[in-house]
Amino acid sequence: MAESILRVEHITKVFQSAKTSIRALEDVSFDIGKGETIGIVGESGCGKTTLGRCIVRAIEATSGNVYYTPSGGETVDFLKVDRRGMRGIRKDIQMIFQDPYSSLDPRMTVFDIISEPLKANYRRMPKAEVERQVIDAAAKTGLNTSYLKRYPHAFSGGQRQRIGIARALILNPNIIVCDEAVSALDVSIQAQVINLLKSLQREMELTYIFISHDLSVVEYISDRVGVMYLGKMMEYAETVELYSRPKHPYTEALLSAVPIADPDIAVKRLPLAGEIPNPANPPSGCFFHPRCGYGIDVCRKKTPVFTNCGNGHFSACHRSAELQLRGINYNNEGRV
Ligand SMILES: Nc1ncnc2c1ncn2[C@@H]1O[C@H](COP(=O)(O)OP(=O)(O)O)[C@@H](O)[C@H]1O
Ligand code: SF4
Ligand SMILES: [Mg+2]
């Protein structure tokens, strides 16, 4: 594995109101190597966006640490850095979102949108330098730089996503959290934006946390993948390892919904049965037990520990060591 750039440890986030307490994240831990893409998957409401927002500190985690090691720099707990300290490093970790149209102010020109973070961070930067950097960021994302005076509504979904990427790139970050960044796009446009993200990654030595409910997209882009359920990390491993030899029944169930070429195998696959439980009132023991086909007595009573099963393959299941679960087949050329 590459040297660690981010170590997420024991992140918990509780949304507390007068009536309810929602544990949106419960003791989430994983390690990210420099230059890697980490995929985060799981059904809607499992805490993916909350995890991304806690990591970039758009919201404050209730507890936990995010150890960040910039290249050549010293490791800091990003979540504990004070306001003054954040001025120097907040720009290092940026986030891009699913629907850039709603996150882009319709009254701002594309130039204003891309330059805004620059102006906020470097108040005294000369106009000519701002302009140079905006044009550079726009060109990097494949935007036509003669359109910078236009408004976002004049652009297609794919181009608007490029505007969002340019805005994230302008501060020259080390890490970008992409939250459902291509989920709203047509498949062909999705591929273009993913390939753009990949080439930017090589060029600018970026590390990505790629959040998506789409397992195929995550499989394509990620070096390692984490599977979340009801605010917990259930499984975490290298992509091909996780997709071909899942150790958690929830991962197997998610994978069984991914389209595959072989119709004989397809029939044998079980869909994910049952509803996602209410996060304000989660099940006892293993949170997945009401929907799990492999449950035993202990599963209702004891919470399984997120454990390294070897080679950096983590799973939180009492039966990970014994179960032979079904994944996706690969050969040398990729997925079969
Ligand atoms: N600001 C908030 N206040 C209260 N509950 C929230 C808030 N944001 C998210 N949640 C809850 O936290 C859980 C995780 O949400 P989210 O992180 O958006 O999941 P995902 O991105 O995986 O769909 C959900 O139950 C959601 O309703
Ligand atoms: S701990 Fe038990 S209920 Fe939970 S996933 Fe494993 S086998 Fe299923
Ligand atoms: Mg989300």
Labels describing this entry:
336 residues, alpha/beta, Rossmann fold, 2 domains, 8-stranded mixed sheet, 4-stranded antiparallel sheet, 12 helices, 22% strand, binds adenosine-5'-diphosphate, binds magnesium ion
List the helices and strands and how they pair.
Layout: E1 4-16, E2 21-33, E3 37-41, H1 48-56, E4 63-68, E5 76-77, H2 83-89, E6 93-96, H3 100-103, H4 110-121, H5 127-140, H6 157-169, E7 175-179, H7 187-204, E8 207-211, H8 215-221, E9 224-229, E10 232-238, H9 239-244, H10 249-255, H11 263-268, H12 297-301, E11 307-308, E12 314-315, E13 330-331, E14 334-335
Helix pairs in contact: 4-5, 4-6, 5-6, 6-7
The structure holds adenosine-5'-diphosphate (ADP), iron/sulfur cluster (SF4) and magnesium ion (MG).
Magnesium ion binds near residues 48, 49 and 180.
